């Protein structure tokens, strides 16, 4: 028993070649291009249900090493098409599957207006990620000596608390300024929710930017300036990309 696994949608004037595309998900067939309609193609593979069926997935989704490997294999296939200059790629979420080829084609045909709108939104653009995290805060002042008065001790404690608070405020303001300035250079920008591991602080900013490929150099140069600005405010900024435009595909896609 198999399901049809959908990696991405590709707008291309001709059938996309899969000869140099990575193998994709472990245990699945090699990716193939399935014609949907007009110049729209679906990159699919046959996935065995004894590995990727709903019952099996529920058991394995808690295994982060396994899920991470699947996510990497999925991403490698999507990126292989996204790197081609003559195509526009709509990436699908991990584990988007259908029961048959006919069902996936019918689903895409039924949402063609929405899909065309997505293609117009992301055509000629790529996604970049920015994360800004707070530092450890300002160092506390030296401890008061034993001979210091109680009032001096309390004043030193307050000074330490104020220094940490001020450092956090400065880092948060730097993160907000980074989002504002980089948004001006992007076609679109989205703040992303981030589930911080227990006991850790969430980032001050976790955002995705949709950037025209022609504006890549300007955007990355500006991002490097923001790295320095954040560092001056006691924060750390990281830039990742370019990626397929996962965060700018609306509405969210789902299987049947």
Word description of this protein:
The chain has 256 residues and is an alpha+beta fold. The chain has 2 domains: 2-122, no CATH class; 126-246, Alpha-Beta Plaits, CATH 3.30.70. The chain is built from 7 helices and 9 strands; from the N terminus they run E-E-E-H-H-H-E-E-H-H-E-H-E-E-H-E. Strands 1, 2, 3, 4 and 5 form a 5-stranded antiparallel beta sheet that branches. A 4-stranded antiparallel beta sheet has the order 7-8-6-9, with helices on one face. Strand 2 and strand 3 (40-48) form a beta hairpin. Helix 6 (150-183) packs antiparallel against helix 7. The longest helix has 34 residues, at 150-183. Mean pLDDT is 86; it is low at 137-142 and 251-256.
Q: Topology, please?
A:
Elements: E1 2-11, E2 32-37, E3 40-48, H1 49-52, H2 54-60, H3 64-82, E4 88-91, E5 97-98, H4 101-110, H5 112-122, E6 125-134, H6 150-183, E7 188-191, E8 205-212, H7 216-232, E9 235-243
Antiparallel strand pairs: 1-3, 1-4, 1-5, 2-3, 6-8, 6-9, 7-8
Helix pairs in contact: 6-7
Shape: globular
Sheet having the most strands: 5 strands, antiparallel
Terminal CA distance: 16 Å
DSSP helical segment count: 7
Low-confidence stretches: 137-142, 251-256
Helical residues, percent: 25-40%
Oligomer: single chain
Q: Supply the number of structural domains.
A: 2
Strand residue percentage:
15-25%
Annotation, overall tally of beta strands: 9
| SSE class | alpha+beta
Whole-number mean pLDDT: 86
Task: Give the SSE string.
Answer: EEEHHHEEHHEHEEHE
Q: Rg to the nearest angstrom?
A: 24 Å
């Amino acid at each position: 028993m198999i399901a049809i696994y959908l990696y991405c949608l590709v707008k291309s004037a001709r059938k996309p070649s899969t000869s140099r595309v990575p193998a994709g998900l472990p245990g699945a067939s090699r990716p193939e291009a399935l014609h949907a309609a007009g110049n729209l193609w679906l990159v699919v593979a046959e996935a065995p249900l004894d590995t990727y069926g709903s019952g099996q997935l529920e058991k394995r989704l808690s295994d982060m090493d396994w899920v991470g490997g699947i996510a990497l294999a999925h991403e490698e296939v999507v990126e292989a098409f996204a790197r081609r200059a003559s195509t526009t790629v709509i990436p699908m979420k991990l584990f988007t599957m259908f029961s048959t080829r006919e069902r996936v084609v019918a689903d895409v045909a039924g949402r063609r207006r929405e899909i065309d709108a997505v293609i117009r939104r992301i055509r000629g653009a790529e996604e970049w990620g920015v994360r800004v995290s707070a530092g450890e805060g300002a160092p506390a002042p030296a401890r008061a000596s034993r001979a210091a008065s109680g009032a001096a001790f309390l004043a030193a404690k307050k000074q330490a608390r104020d220094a940490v608070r001020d450092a956090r405020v400065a880092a948060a303001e730097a993160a907000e300024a980074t989002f504002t300035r980089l948004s001006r250079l992007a076609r679109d920008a989205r703040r992303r929710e981030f589930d911080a591991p227990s006991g850790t602080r969430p980032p001050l900013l976790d955002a995705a930017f949709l950037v025209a490929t022609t504006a890549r150099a300007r955007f990355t140069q500006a991002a490097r300036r923001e790295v320095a600005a954040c560092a001056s405010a006691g924060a750390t900024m990281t830039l990742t990309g370019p990626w397929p435009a996962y965060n700018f595909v609306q509405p969210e896609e789902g299987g049947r």
